[in-house]
Amino acid sequence: MADPRDAAICKLLHKIVCALVDRPEFVVIKTHAEEEGATFTIGAHPDDTGKLIGKQGRNARSIRTLLGAAGMKLHRRYAIDITEEPLQ
Q: Which tens digits make up the pLDDT trace of 71-81?
């Protein structure tokens, strides 16, 4: 059962990811709800995957920090998984 708080976090994540990539129309985020939180799987155009990860993983780490801070407020745990291939 999906938590309504996860939908708000997914919208936030989508806005952040779309701001980072060159081709936002290819961004797909899938949510896997768990008991204590959710895992978001992010798929983007193969040319944009590096932009999501950033140099030495800085962008990915920053996104994880933002999700962690939002999760603390909502009493949920959030994780992201960036895939190389685009999601359907």
A: 999 999 999 99
